[in-house]
Design a protein that fits this description.
The chain has helices at about 5-15, 40-45, 50-55, 180, 210-215, 220-230, 335-340, 345-350, 370-385; strands at about 60-65, 75-80, 80-85, 95, 110, 115-120, 125, 130-135, 150-155, 155-160, 160-165, 190-195, 245-250, 250-260, 265-275, 280, 290, 295-300, 305-315, 410-414. By secondary structure, it is an alpha+beta fold. It has 2 domains: about 65-155, 3-layer Sandwich (Rieske Iron-sulfur Protein), CATH 2.102.10; about 175-414, Naphthalene 1,2-dioxygenase Alpha Subunit, Chain A, domain 1 (Alpha-Beta Complex), CATH 3.90.380. α1 packs across α9. The radius of gyration is 23 Å and the shape is globular.
């Protein structure tokens, strides 16, 4: 098994994420004297003004399905910010901060009309870009209304999702398109899903986003967690221990896994963790071969919660959500507590690390080289933004070609 790791690489990993050696006061192996848990704040904390928060604000993020934006105001939480999503009656989606610029009442209780959202308290009307259009209690509808603006964020719609950009206006990139979602075969169409497919649990997962993002470059957990430990959660081929190497691309870390299947065939599987939060993971159920058939975006709602939006090429409606089944056709929420304990999946493995995993307590090994490389790639982007540069994976060219990934399942004859 070639895991592509070396002792110098692992030592370097520990310089990236400091590792606490010897957690006992007397180094006897007991838990007495154990130092407090601590995490890499730069990679995990996503609020405005934090290093990762500012990096993630340089990209577009999905914040809902297209059907979530209606004339009924909807609460959304993105990168530690509480916001209100709506669609005016001309069809334009809008995203505004909740507290009305007048007296602070929440626009969640507002009413949507032809041109925007109206506050319940005094009726001030704001359009999808925050302009104040009416102040009903003021003379002439508010002669100074042009001086008032409700804080808002740009939104666009693509692939059945509503996307938002929460970063500096002068640095707003174009909303990227993706080759695997642009090139449809006969009979295929795109389906968007908000059930956090790939997260192994409910739509909102109560732990830090990095715990899931790290998992994308960890192919060995598929053999243990999803196969030998919890039974065959995917297909038998995934239980074969792969030979693995990793490499870093301009906007991703790739995992290249090779499995000798014993029937004269070789399964070559390529997956990618793309910037900023992309899941470029071919189906572990291996129903088809070729390029990856879906993309997922991990949305950090705040430091302790995330959810996943997925868009996939499908041939029948509801095909994506079928991938959520966990045990004998049961969904995560249908499992008993004892079944969760006996047959854990990604949710149990990741959420049980804590709301934010303690990186100081990690002991990285050779099979973790992909995680080392991914965290280094993120740190490189943090450094670029801190220096006033643009991070990888953003483009300001409206004519830029769709983003291409090499991920997929490929079956070869020996």
């Amino acid at each position: 098994m070639n895991q592509g790791a070396s002792e110098p690489a692992i030592a370097a990993a520990r310089r990236v994420i400091p590792i606490q050696a010897g957690t006992s006061a007397a180094d006897t192996g007991t838990a007495y004297g154990r130092p407090p848990r601590s995490h890499d704040k730069a990679l995990t904390e996503v609020g405005a003004g934090t290093p990762m928060g500012e990096l993630l604000r340089r990209y577009w993020h999905p914040i809902g399905l297209g059907s979530d934006a209606t004339d009924t105001p909807r609460k959304v939480r993105v990168l530690g910010e509480d916001l209100i999503l709506f669609r005016d009656k001309t069809g334009r989606p809008g995203l505004v901060t909740p507290h009305c610029a007048h007296r602070g009442a929440s626009l969640y209780y507002g009413k949507v009309d032809e041109h925007g959202i109206r506050c319940c308290y005094h009726g001030w009307l704001f359009d999808v870009q925050g302009h104040c259009l009416e102040q009903p209690c003021e003379v002439q509808g508010g002669r100074a209304r042009d001086k008032v603006r409700q804080p808002w964020y740009p939104v666009q719609e693509l692939y059945g999702l509503v996307w938002a950009y929460l970063g500096p206006p002068a640095k707003k990139p174009v909303l990227p398109r993706y080759e695997c979602l642009e090139t449809l075969e006969p009979g295929e169409f795109l389906e968007a899903d908000n059930n956090s497919i790939g997260g192994g649990g409910p739509p909102v997962i109560p732990c830090n986003w990095l715990q899931h993002y790290d998992n994308l470059v960890d192919p060995f957990h598929v053999v243990i967690l999803h196969s030998s430990f919890s039974g065959t959660q995917f297909v038998e081929q995934m239980a074969v221990m792969p030979e693995v190497t990793w490499d870093t691309q301009a906007h991703s870390v790739r995992t290249l896994s090779t499995r000798k299947l014993g029937d004269g065939k070789t399964l070559r599987r390529i997956s990618e963790a793309g910037l900023p939060t992309l899941r470029v993971i071919p189906s572990p159920r291996i129903g088809r071969y070729g390029m990856v058939e879906s993309l997922g975006w991990v949305l950090p709602m705040d430091d302790h919660h995330f959810r996943i939006y997925v868009v996939g090429r499908v041939r029948e409606k509801g095909e994506l959500v079928k991938m959520r089944s966990r045990l004998q056709g049961k969904l995560w929420e249908e499992l008993t507590e004892d079944e969760h304990r006996q047959f854990p999946g990604d949710y149990e493995a990741q959420v049980s690390q804590g709301a934010i995993a303690s990186h100081a307590d990690e002991f990285l090994a050779g099979s973790d080289l992909g995680i080392v490389m991914l965290r280094r790639l993120l740190h490189k982007q943090l450094k670029a933004v801190a220096e006033g540069k643009d991070p990888s994976g953003v483009s300001f060219d409206v004519n830029a070609p769709p983003v291409r990934f090499s991920a997929g399942n490929f079956l070869e004859l020996e």
